[in-house]
Amino acid sequence: MFKFLKLVQENLIIAIPAVMVIGLFYGYFFDVSNLTSFIVPLTFIMVYPMMVTLQMNSLLHFEDYKLQITTQIINFMVIPFIGFGVGYIFFPGNILMITGIVLTSLLPTSGMTISWTGFAKGNVSSAIKMTIIGLISGSLAVPLYLKFLIGKSVTIDPIKTFIQIGVIVFIPLIAGWITHITLSHIFGKEKFHKQIKPFFPPLSTIGVLGVVFVAIALKSKSLIEHPFTIAYMILPVITLYILNFIISTVVAKLFFKRADALALVFGTVLRNLSIALALAINVFGKEGADIAIIIALAYIIQVQAASYYVRFADIIFKKEPIQEVC
Asked: Cα separation of 247 and 214, whole Å?
């Protein structure tokens, strides 16, 4: 089972479209009214496993403060507003679609940030710290950004949103932290990190695919009746990622060496789509299905874009020469 989940996790670019197609036909031919009851447990399954893998003690080291500050400036002072602008240009008057793009741009970093930084031989320790800072800061900032950017067009209750953030992020975060400490104590840190921790990330794949399935199934009849809707939605998502990659790459090349630069790029471009997906469904109710489709499409673009960026990393950022020890 673990090997299967690991395979699915490594091939989300195939798994997510497949689940979207299954959800499309299921929702068209079967009653989907009971699917909403699965949203909360699927959300927990999606978020909790990645919390177990976080190394909270990395926040105690501040030697890379310039890199961390630059990353968060891009994450919170640049990208959300670009996301809003892209949504406004492509979906004028359609506030749900705009909200989908905004949510896609609001929550920076995920476990993928650490993984892809490692694949590109970037600064993994800084990427871990970016992930934790981005997760906590983004979760606290989301209600305020939503209220500021789209609150005039749709009713946003910041208190309700904060409560949902607590359920979706902070309860799994605390549970994951307790699990991390407990298992490290029982099995020892070395065994935990090498043998036990790798089991958790693939488990979140069940939640991701489950929430995508529910979102598509709930909107299946509308999507089948309007077959070009997916193409209409995916173009602004691609635009957002292109702009994000360009901005992050330029800043990284100007101010940082290769390893730090790669951490910055993946720490600002890759978004925490799992939490965005959970928020879309839990905060916006049935209307959240429209928002969730955009976020599901972002999964496909994000994985594909990250893989291509790793391939060209040595061209974009020249390899630093290895110093010989005399």
From this structure: 34
